[in-house]
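User: I'm new to structure prediction. If I give you an amino acid sequence, what do you actually give back? Let's try with this one:
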Amino acid sequence: MMIKPPTFALINFPPGLDQTVSAASQLAFPGARLMALAALESPGQSNGSAPDLIVLCEPDAALAAAATQAVDPTGAPRWAVVILGRETSDVTESVPPEDWNARALARIFQTAWRQHDLLRENYRLRGDLKTVARRISHDLRTPAGCIHTSSDLLDELTIGKSAALTNVADIFRQSSGEISHIVDRVSFVLRASAEPVGPAPVDMGAIVKAVIVQLEAEIRASNASVVQPDSWPAVRGVAPWLQMVWLNLLQNALRHGGPAPQVRIAWAREGETCRFSVSDRGGGVLAAREPGLFLPFDQLHALRYPGLGLSIVQRLVLLQGGRCGYEKMPEGGAGFHFTLPLA
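Assistant: Good question. You get back a string of structure tokens that encode the predicted 3D arrangement of the chain. For your 343 residues, that looks like this:
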């Protein structure tokens, strides 16, 4: 919240009402300044100062739209706006004539200013997420790639000379790969949060097929078997997000499903939604760990090492209007599921 009280701009106010608004502004924000303007185009011309909160009295549609849709040079909402009139609005506070008194208007002004400040802060935070997802992830990926390349070169220079140096090269290669993997996954979910995408019909079978191809080497190396349905439904979602969801769930089953993992993929219709599941025959999850499996992504800072995969799954599923969960399988092993609306 800003420390200084906002500057009010009153546009085309009838005689007398401006005194009520002036009294309300001082009740809401002692020391607030008022500017009387003839038109919206002139904010900032009076005494060289720009207003923070615009008050319109029964404006026409064009004036109301111009005020509520205005943005500053960064693209954030420019002003808080309060409309005195009976016309309702989804983007600003509207006050009917029976509430045109100082005490009621003071409460409305305070609410409008807080909402405006929160909107601008939310805009700034989205910008922070985009910066981390794009700029910092790019800047981290480059040196991680250099370390990986250097480890390959170290291997070539030490062939037949030093087992210790070969082990060091392997550690460098593995560590740089893990760094790149973490950066990719974190930047992916940050971009999804900062730039939401509307859902569309998705062929889930094609998504799962692409992920299994991506994991083919890991499936072969672990001697795993993956059983999936003969047919798939169409759901509403975002294809790249769903590919990341399936990638995390299947990797989780392959790595924690015991020796020669047996992974089963299934789906079932539940009303207007579809429930997808991935289960294995491993040891399952300890009861003490179950409550923290789907820790929200924005709470990962609270734990030292909670893991990223399931938190990423939860965030991406929630962004698509679904939910996810865990259940211990009757025959042993772990079962993870998520739901999405049917197409």
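You can read the tokens as a compact description of the fold. Here is one thing that stands out. The longest strand covers residues 262-270.
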